[in-house]
Amino acid sequence: MLFSHGVDSIGLVSIDEWRRIMMLGSKRSYFVGVDESAYPRDFAVFVRYHDELPRKIQSRYPMPPPLSLEEFDEFLEQTNGRYRVEWH
Predict the structure, then answer these.
(1) Which residues, 6 or more positions from 29, have their beta carbon under 8 angstroms from its beta carbon?
(2) Are 40 and 12 in contact (CB under 8 A)?
(3) Are the C-beta atoms of 54 and 11 separated by less than 8 Å?
(4) How many angstroms separate the first and last alpha carbons of the chain?
(5) Taking CA 39 as the corner, what is the angle to CA 33 and CA 43, rounded to the nearest 5 degrees?
(6) Which is higher by pLDDT, 88 or 38?
(7) N or C, which end of the chain is more exposed by having fewer CB within 10 Å?
(8) pLDDT (0 to 100) of residue 45
């Protein structure tokens, strides 16, 4: 989904650039809910996204259970500074 904020502003990534970036991925990619001809003035994207998401991405997984504090501490030790997290 692209955030359509309604203006051609400085730093706005064009729809063509988004298409190019998506082609670089190793997996299939597509816009969800986006009217490419209306972007960035595609305010209906938010409604279409809600309807299209379950159709285009059909895999569903349950939320995993929360980690215990011990499991979280072990995770931080195993990742050895990979993530910018401080545990006090």
Answers:
(1) 22, 23
(2) yes
(3) no
(4) 37
(5) 65
(6) 38
(7) C
(8) 92
Question: Is 32:53 a contact under the CB 8 Å cutoff?
Answer: yes
The whole-number average pLDDT for the span 21-25 is: 88
CB 30, CB 57: distance < 8 Å: no
Q: Is the pLDDT of residue 68 over 90?
A: yes
Chain centroid to Cα 24, Å, comes to 16
- Pairwise CA distance, residues 47 & 52, whole Å: 9
Q: Which two tokens stand for residue 54?
A: 């379950």
Short-list 42, 41, 23, CA closest to 32: 42
Find out whether the peptide bond into 66 is cis, omega within 30 degrees of 0: no
Phi, psi of 22 (to 5 degrees): -65, -30
